[in-house]
Amino acid sequence: MRAVVLSGPGPVENLELRDIPLPEAPPGWVRIAVKAFGLNRSELHLRLGYAENARFPVVPGIEAVGVVDAAPDGDLAPGQQVAAMMGGMGRAFDGGYAEYTVVPRAQVIPFRSQLPWSVLGAVPETLQTAYGSLTTGLDLRAGQSLLIRGGTSALGYAAAALARDTGATVLATTRQPDRLDALAAHGVDHPILDGGAVAEQVRRIVPGGVDAALELVGTPTLPDTLAATRVHGTVCFAGMLSNVWTVKDFYPIGYIPSGVRLTGYGGEASDLPAAVLQRVLDRLAAGELSLGPVRTYRFGQVRDAHRDMESNAAGGKLVVTLEDGS
């Protein structure tokens, strides 16, 4: 089969399209014929050398969508549409950047949809993280206000859609003025231009501070996001668009405003109920929901996709499709 192999940390040239043996699926695992896969920031971190427990060479990719090709346990039929994600994919074992991937059954979620694979490929990991961040991380409720720091990322768009669907008022930031209209068109109530500090702007819109905030940029903006949040409000750290994820000399009492709660979220496939995935796919198909823009690449364009991800050249989700085989 063809696969994209990352030989080691470094530039995009370290992503090499190779012919490698077709992997077998042992008991407890499933082989998936990959139709599309979304790109994620963690795969950029892997390429840049910032990934724990990674082995090289490796086929990257923490998610994929496709159809069951082999399932020794017999509970999934060949041809069944499935999504797979997380649990060591693309780090501890070969992941989704391939024509076939073999993953533990526990990481496989079946679904049924007539949506194009290019659309389906944008959903699994982004939805899992957005859903988990808003529920487990923030316990967001109808009538509350939510600030999304990093609103034009794939996760930002998805979180905004789910939050609006919940009945929350959404504020979302972008560093690029030409993307403010895109946030508004996506249903964001208050698009905010982020010059590095937005707490004052947020508090002019929501006196006293927002009920909840989703930090997707990383630790450089986290103090300002905390400052935009009310007493007994919650900030969930769930993204690292800045590629900076640690706080030097962290002193909690001086760092976290009094009474503001700081949580984090990083989930697995098991944290996305199959019913939630199916419901979202059905609503996408019906035109009742949008998770944001998608930019599609062919399999041979993985390096281009990584360049665009690294330079933040596109808002929304980047998806590689294997439908045309090129």
Automatic annotation (TrEMBL):
GO terms for molecular function: NADPH binding; oxidoreductase activity, acting on NAD(P)H. The keyword Heme does not apply. SUPFAM superfamilies: GroES-like, NAD(P)-binding Rossmann-fold domains. It comes from the Bacteria. Residues 10-320 form the Enoyl reductase (ER) domain. Keywords: NADP, Oxidoreductase. PANTHER family: QUINONE OXIDOREDUCTASE PIG3, QUINONE OXIDOREDUCTASE PIG3-RELATED. This is NADPH:quinone reductase.
